[in-house]
Amino acid sequence: MLKNYLKATFRNLWKTRGYSFLNIFGLAVGITAASLIFLWVADEMTYDNLPGHENIYIVKSKQTFDGATNVFDAVPGLLGPAVKDEIPGIQYAARVAWASSSLFSVGDHGIYQSGHFAEPDLMQIFSLEFVEGDKATAMANPTDLVLTQSAAARIFGDEPALGKLVRVDNDKSYTVSGVVRDLPKNSTFQFDWLIPFEVYEQENQWIRQWRNNVLMTYIRLEPSANPVDVNGKLHDFAIRKSVNEQLNTHNLLYPMARWRLYNSFDRDGNEQEGRMKYVRLFSIIAWVVLLIACINFMNLATARSEKRAKEVGMRKVIGASRPSLMFQFLGESIVMALISTLLAVVLVYSSIGVFNNLVEKELAMDIFKPAHLIFLGGIVLACGLLSGIYPAWYLSSFNPISTLKGGKQKAGTAGFIRRGLVVLQYAASITLIICTVVIFQQVQYTKGRELGYERSHVLLTPLQGALVNHIEAIKEQLVATGVVENAGISESRLLNIGSNTWHMNWEGKDPGKQVMIANLRVDADFIPTLGMELVDGRNFRARMLGDSSSIVINEAFAKLISPDANVAGQTVYWDKTPYTIAGVVKDFVYNNVYTLPSPMFFRPFEVQPYGQLNIKIKAGTDLTEALPKIEDIIQTHNPGYPFDYHFFDDLFDAKFKSEMLIQKLAGVFAVLSIVISCLGLFGLAAFTAERRTKEMGIRKVLGASISSLVGLLNREFVMLVLVSCAVAFPFAWWMMSDWLSNYQYRTDLHWWVFALAGAGALVIALLTVSSQAIKAALMNPTKSLRDE
């Protein structure tokens, strides 16, 4: 019996191979798209899934200023050791300095690596696995150095690294005391190297104050500890410890399971979904694309049903029961779903490299992995049953006498369901198109906003080694090349200002009002290098002569002091130290590119072995000519370091990484959903044209033109697309309004975006349907009426 069913199945597939191909290929494309998305979703959902992750936390700080609550990872330098000693339930606690990139040299070979100064407990917190060395002693001495396997391979190649000397930043030498396995790629915490924290602490004694939130602190709780109890004791811990420092900081444990997907907070300090909303969005998209493919299967199978009407009637006459017919047609659907799934596996393996480049991950699919086998098997059964149950019921319901006479089955509810499914398909596709366009508009709108400075042709190179000792000579030589307009120094990159204070006071300030104000050390050439506009007062004097107690503030800060922002010459106090406002610059964008400007000020740069040299290359200069000249000057003064640089434009664009990823993914799957939906329209058009063949013949005999016949068949599908627009437009408007509400600086929702998406969908639908309509209209009426 089963053998006969299989024979009948493959005979029918071959007999209608054109439609079988559309069926199988459409479903395979849908399964491929859904599989790729689910691989991405699975990777995101398993982020930070390290051994014991349920007991790992980072300590966050929460501060409220001027009605807004900020939640961030930096905590006081004294917090880590104190909580470990005084709060029960904490098994390990490690202070960690912010990641930094350093030059690691062995002989003449040097390479930049990123890592942390950290306390030994960090190795226990993250369960680091040693492949060389001993965890118990790896960070016992201040000259110890722990490398990851990949970092050790980059520095030493295939040779063992244990016990070898490495020179860091052409200064101190460290001995490799251990090599650990790399943490998984889908881990938030990453590093190439670890150096004992005591080295950092000795060079930065200022961190030993409760008021300075400067370090990250990671904690691992005892398995039996209650996180709620620990959080309660931690909440006011720093405030109680710093009664003389007017601290306004509360602390909280933030679990590792939420670092990747939920690490976002609103102005009230409440946790937001963060990246999780994108995971949910694309999970929905995956199911929608898969559903669209199944809908196509149903419509295409139904569209060909009348070709098998006599077969069904004959089988019923010779004794076939309705259940046996349903079993046969369900079996055909499952076989086709199996073929589609196998084709989808091939497509996934073929396209996963391109997809990885798109999402910047290293995803892999192993069909022999139990989870993947269950997933694929589930798709075969779900798609086969879901796609086949309706056609099986529809085909097996045919009246044998009517079908053997050549009668047509009434569409009835079947026609309504098919049209409803097409509306659902196109509504989903139109929604995706609108979302893609709006996301693109938001990114472009923000990129095109008034920044308050020039970002084009600005090169940043780190101040390393001896550069800072010769900086004035370097700047003069750079300008003398003829390719550089100006050069200035900043303590950090303008888009990554990390220094903030709430200890600023001025005459007339409300004593009860606390304001968080960012600050950045710069030299006198920084403001003109970036082309910032002074709206009041002056810039710093050359070489900061007489300006050691001067600051330059932005308009947002100036308006806090005086509504007219004319505050040049006034005095403000940082703690009790007076500073004179030399000038006011026009508001500019820093840190978060999506927010409105917030108060900040520039203060005089002091000689220090770190910072950024900002170099403005003359407009119109060929970069292939400029870069070698700049590199030559930098290398002359700093021969021990490779020339490392970034362009401001690239750093600015990197701020849009998440939005660009969403835009790309939404765009790709919007196109796929349109393609799959077109297959569904094609099937429905074929079905409709087949049912109305005799009607078309009669109309043609009575004098109807080809264009009128084409218009007659197209009219129904135009209505379906219009109904799809009516469904998609309100939903897309609501969804995009909600998404845009996350940004202070945002574009508007324009009516023409919706009109364009609807018009595009209509044109694509007409092109798809017209192929079948024209074919039906051109048919010789004698062929369609010969049985009458």
Automatic annotation (TrEMBL):
GO cellular component: plasma membrane
Domain ABC3 transporter permease C-terminal residues, every copy: 284-400, 668-781
Membrane disposition: Multi-pass membrane protein
Assigned keywords, A-Z: Cell membrane, Membrane, Transmembrane, Transmembrane helix
TM helices/strands, residue ranges: 21-42, 281-303, 324-352, 372-395, 416-440, 665-689, 717-737, 749-769
One MF annotation (Gene Ontology) recorded for this entry: transmembrane transporter activity
KW Transmembrane helix (keyword) present: yes
Subcellular location as annotated: Cell membrane
One Pfam assignment: MacB_PCD
InterPro entries, per database record: ABC3_permease_C, MacB_PCD, Macrolide_Exporter_MacB
MacB-like periplasmic core domain residues: 20-234, 494-632
Superkingdom: Bacteria
Keyword Transmembrane: yes
Location, primary (coarse class): membrane
Name of this protein: Duplicated orphan permease
Organism ancestry: Bacteria, Pseudomonadati, Bacteroidota, Sphingobacteriia, Sphingobacteriales
